[in-house]
Amino acid sequence: MTDHAPFPRSRPRRLRRTPALRALVREARLSADDLIWPVFVCDGEGATMEVASMPGVIRRSVDLTAEAAEEAFQAGIRTICLFPYTDAALKTDDCAEAWNSDNLSNRATRAIKAAVPGMSVMTDVALDPYNAQGHDGIVRNGVIVNDESVEALVRMAMAQAEAGADILGPSDMMDGRIGAIRTALEEAGMQDVTIMSYAAKYASAFYGPFRDATGSSGALTGDKKTYQLDPLNAEEGLRCVARDLAEGADMVMVKPGMPYLDMVRRVKDAFAVPTFAYQVSGEYAMIRAAAGNGWIDGERAMMESLMSFRRAGCDGVLTYFAPEAARLIRAGWE
Ligand SMILES: NCc1[nH]cc(CCC(=O)O)c1CC(=O)O
């Protein structure tokens, strides 16, 4: 970096004086193209359910999800990510509902692709919505077994790809799943399906409201520390990113978002690949709760948080704020 001239030759405030000058030297931009909207899908028709710990977020039945996708598309959102709220009766130890071609997530994928062909659909590859044990992998005698879980994840991923998913998002953190899914896609002639790997995914308290939203918090026994990363480990996160890229991931993700922006920057600098972050449910809940209490300006805090992802090096962000932020961007937010 070049040294700047000493004061008063250098007066950095010169470039901050007017909106035009500030815009001229702005380094990063936030556009609706950078936003991926995670949505919760529930059973029924014309049905909505509120999520208590995520004010403003609702679960929608498949028909209303397709409608919401259409509206979001009008606002500029071009990728949507599906999470099913699965009936407890469909949760089993073998997680078979995960690869049912007519499960909620696959029905929603087809409905969205039919209603809004230009919308990219991303799906979640992990067994937790379908697992009686609430874990992302199959549990045998209290142990989350890796290789058997990977086989199940491959079946799940293939069902999602067949339903028309554009982006598969393995969020399970089992070893070897990216390679196994990539191989299966190639063998099935579905070589154009993309994979966004949840590569550096940490064992986080910030997922709490999400587990309520998908109904997996009740089922979960214990924690996810044997497969999700230790929050203190940065190098291990980088190794996971390297591994997932070597196995065939097209894009990688860091998760959660705001407490892990250092990881975003390190991943982007080290690998120079499409890099994403997930601003998770707990981050959303914090901003909403503080805003709801009048303690912060919710709109400005939302936009600033999203801009911080871009500054840190993210190509895009998964955020529950996506439609709201897209509308503000449309309206000329600076
Ligand atoms: N495979 C589970 C999954 N996929 C996305 C999230 C969290 C998203 C959020 O908190 O918004 C989780 C939760 C978890 O790992 O327990």
TrEMBL record:
<feature type="active site" description="Schiff-base intermediate with substrate">
    <location>
        <position position="201"/>
    </location>
</feature>
<protein>
    <recommendedName>
        <fullName>Delta-aminolevulinic acid dehydratase</fullName>
        <ecNumber>4.2.1.24</ecNumber>
    </recommendedName>
</protein>
<keyword id="KW-0350">Heme biosynthesis</keyword>
<comment type="similarity">
    <text>Belongs to the ALAD family.</text>
</comment>
<feature type="active site" description="Schiff-base intermediate with substrate">
    <location>
        <position position="255"/>
    </location>
</feature>
<keyword id="KW-0627">Porphyrin biosynthesis</keyword>
<keyword id="KW-0456">Lyase</keyword>
<dbReference type="InterPro" id="IPR030656">
    <property type="entry name" value="ALAD_AS"/>
</dbReference>
<dbReference type="InterPro" id="IPR013785">
    <property type="entry name" value="Aldolase_TIM"/>
</dbReference>
<dbReference type="GO" id="GO:0006782">
    <property type="term" value="P:protoporphyrinogen IX biosynthetic process"/>
</dbReference>
<dbReference type="InterPro" id="IPR001731">
    <property type="entry name" value="ALAD"/>
</dbReference>
<comment type="pathway">
    <text>Porphyrin-containing compound metabolism; protoporphyrin-IX biosynthesis; coproporphyrinogen-III from 5-aminolevulinate: step 1/4.</text>
</comment>
<comment type="subunit">
    <text>Homooctamer.</text>
</comment>
<dbReference type="Pfam" id="PF00490">
    <property type="entry name" value="ALAD"/>
</dbReference>
<dbReference type="GO" id="GO:0008270">
    <property type="term" value="F:zinc ion binding"/>
</dbReference>
<dbReference type="GO" id="GO:0005829">
    <property type="term" value="C:cytosol"/>
</dbReference>
<dbReference type="GO" id="GO:0004655">
    <property type="term" value="F:porphobilinogen synthase activity"/>
</dbReference>
